Amino acid sequence: MSDEFTRAVEAVLFAAAEPLAPDDIAAHAGEGDVAAALETLARHYDGRGVRLVERGGRWHFQTAPDLAHLLRRTREEPRRLSRAATETLAIIAYHEPVSRAEIEAIRGVQAGKGTLDVLMEAGWVRPAGRREGPGRPLLYATTADFLSHFGLGSRRDLPGLEDLRAAGLLDPMEEALGTLPLESDGEDA
């Protein structure tokens, strides 16, 4: 890892207060192949106490997951979301950008303003502009912090239906329907 440009990229990432996109890295590090430097650094830090990771197209150093407990001075309380907040977050993640009316239509109940406020306060949801149409409703989308918190590189890494079923988080609809008696097709047996 003696390449001067790679060292410059490493210094930029180390000093950055927040994750950086490759264009931002290039703006600070100068001329060079940012992608190659990032690949070299990621290999160099693989298996060490810190790792170079990419989340949502932005790069940063983070403590290796197996050592994170060493750096916690106080016990972190896990953020507990209400069922409404969890459902709302899932709808936004899978359907973004989405309006409050669309969230309500999918959930089947009215979305309280407090639910979206909690998600925005957590830094996981942000306003994403307005839809062109009657009333120009505000749209919501997930943030880079959402991706980082849940360990996702991008929204494409969200689990699909089969993944959720395999994890036991969804009841297969086919099984539920299979237990219901079928209606007669009009013929007597």
TrEMBL record:
<keyword id="KW-0131">Cell cycle</keyword>
<protein>
    <submittedName>
        <fullName>SMC-Scp complex subunit ScpB</fullName>
    </submittedName>
</protein>
<keyword id="KW-0963">Cytoplasm</keyword>
<dbReference type="InterPro" id="IPR036390">
    <property type="entry name" value="WH_DNA-bd_sf"/>
</dbReference>
<keyword id="KW-0159">Chromosome partition</keyword>
<keyword id="KW-0132">Cell division</keyword>
<dbReference type="Pfam" id="PF04079">
    <property type="entry name" value="SMC_ScpB"/>
</dbReference>
<dbReference type="InterPro" id="IPR005234">
    <property type="entry name" value="ScpB_csome_segregation"/>
</dbReference>
<dbReference type="InterPro" id="IPR036388">
    <property type="entry name" value="WH-like_DNA-bd_sf"/>
</dbReference>
